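Lab notebook, entry 431. We have the chain sequence and a SMILES string for pyridoxal-5'-phosphate, and the next step in the workflow is to get a structural model of the bound complex before anyone spends time on docking refinements. Request logged below.

Task: model protein plus pyridoxal-5'-phosphate, output structure tokens.
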Amino acid sequence: MSVSKELIKMREKYVARGVFNTALQFVSRAKNAIIEDVDGNKLIDFTSGIAVQNSGHSNDLITQRVKEQLEKYTHVCFHVIMYEPYVMLAKKLAEITPEGLEKSMFANSGAEAVENAIKIARAYTGKRGIITFENAFHGRTFMAMTLTSSIQPYKKGFSPFMSDVIRLPFAYCYRCPIKKSYPECGIECLEFIERAFVTYISADDTAAIITEPIQGEGGFIIPPKDYLQEMRKIAEENNVLFIADEVQTGFGRTGKTFCIENYEIIPDLMTVAKAFGGGFPLSGVIGKSEIMDAPEIGGIGGTYGGNPISCVAALAAIEILQEKRLADRARQIEKITMERFEEFKEKYVIVGDVRGMGAMNAIELVKDRERKTPEKVKTGEIIRECINNGLLILKAGIYGNVIRLLPPLTIEEEILIQGLDILEGAIKKFN
Ligand SMILES: Cc1ncc(COP(=O)(O)O)c(C=O)c1O
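Result returned:
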């Protein structure tokens, strides 16, 4: 029996069912965009551990900095005694985020960053309402899960949820909520927000609008530029904070350091995680100083938040992002990938839509192009076929019918092309 199979038996016996797995394999080592399993099989990685390893697996600089920090001290807790990497990272984050975002707090996961952003927004505004969107994903803790859209599997069996959260349709242009086409629609779907202030909760009672600049788990849904810009304006005009959740889109992934820069928007608060920690658990909220300073002393934080190992890894990851110009690499990945995706769309009827920004590219699979019936079953089969042929890849989408690509930004061009060839072979088989 293979080592993986033995470990799977143990996993089934001792690990809870609800913790999902994409590949039924166990990793032994990983370098840049290649993962090797315990049985010696090699996989091209188009997932980056879900948008984390932007600078590639086992990056030498990150490894070196972490080793150095391990020799000095590991955990002391920033609330007990302070340490330099936390403060240096807060300074660095202020330098690389859009102007006006100055102060940070650090936590461990994306969901925790979202929780904290909502707490900060409520403390600052003294208001309760939060506007979120269909297809959104903001995490699995209670407020984050409430903000998350998809019921199955993220919310099933976990109710009741948090109060004062209003969910509105989002500009998912391939499946337009008002059945129009962009740009002729005049982004009429924004009226949902204005109407919500009349029919659901008054703007005087609304603390924040939270959105991902590109909806990630929801299916890599890329809203038009003017849609997000107008949304930001509506927030400002109504004294409602605008929170950009950059957990999946940040740190070069979409061709800019932060996705929101593609939209030329400055949010009031921004959440970061995933690639932020360079492979170590770390998240943060950054915002305008007066907003970030609203909670009482002791009101935000946590034992492990911004632990020193993660902070030095994050500083190294930012150094790599800047020195290796990873955002530009993301644009090159977009060019190669989207050219292939356009070909796939011409050749295979199962491909309903292709979309992407930087190294965040997706294919939406449908049973028929006219009615756009989601093709969930074959999406799963294509993903399994890719894994069997040496390509690790993820699905997304509220209907589970989107294949998403999140390769390390450092992936070698020939490895990227090899991966795209495997993906094409799988699509062709199930077309
Ligand atoms: C946009 C966004 N926000 C929040 C989260 C939650 O992050 P975590 O899984 O680290 O809690 C995710 C995770 O996929 C995400 O994509």
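Notes for the group: The mean pLDDT is 97. Worth checking against the assay data. Residues 327 and 377 are 34 Å apart (CA to CA).
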